[in-house]
Amino acid sequence: MRLNQNTLLLGKKVVLVPYTSEHVPRYHEWMKSEELQRLTASEPLSLEQEYAMQRSWREDADKCTFIVLDAEKWQAQPGTTEESCMVGDVNLFLTDLEDPTLGEIEVMIAAWDRGVGVGTSLLAPLSSPLGVTRLDLTKFEAKIGQGNEPSIRMFQKLHFEQVAVSSVFQEVTLRLTISESEHEWLLEQTSHVEEKPYRDGSAEPC
């Protein structure tokens, strides 16, 4: 999505940047993992297909993708590449034609070796002007495999509530409705996150 192509979200533990071609090789290596394929219900792609997917996601009006960077590594020294700091991604899909105020969120953490506690920072695209104002979203859903207990617990801690279970797809659907009180809570939880301009492929640590 071009709407977020110049948006960087800087948190205490993670930095969210637009998904660019620079990130594809490492993302491709992640997705060779059968465990990640299972957790994300994904099929393995060739490197060429992965580059094509990145270009498609950049242009599609219904997909908003951020790559998650380890903020400590990214800020450690000037010139650190984003690829070396990658730990996962966050996606917003706007695919419900009957309800344009609903966004589906997906979070994948593929390489995090310094503990937990990044959940609220990953909600930054929801609480920032990008999610609530520019995209005019008021509801968010997460569809998670029934066996992915860590992800289910993370979303429940972030006030998502279970609204459906699919025995066919072996997944649960969690939903967060952005009421006034929930919006205030989100803003409090992400008050440490700064929105900054992003220069394609060359954002600099602050």
From TrEMBL:
Residues 14-161 form the N-acetyltransferase domain. Gene3D superfamilies: 3.40.630.30. N-acetyltransferase that mediates the acetylation of the N-terminal residues of alpha- and beta-tubulin. GO terms for molecular function: tubulin N-terminal-methionine acetyltransferase activity. PANTHER family: ALPHA_BETA-TUBULIN-N-ACETYLTRANSFERASE 9, N-ACETYLTRANSFERASE 9. Its EC number is 2.3.1.308. Belongs to the acetyltransferase family. GNAT subfamily. It catalyses: N-terminal L-methionyl-[tubulin] + acetyl-CoA = N-terminal N(alpha)-acetyl-L-methionyl-[tubulin] + CoA + H(+). Keywords: Acyltransferase, Transferase. It comes from the Eukaryota. This is Alpha/beta-tubulin-N-acetyltransferase 9. InterPro entries: Acyl_CoA_acyltransferase (IPR016181), GNAT_dom (IPR000182), NAT9-like (IPR039135). It is an enzyme of class 2 (transferase).
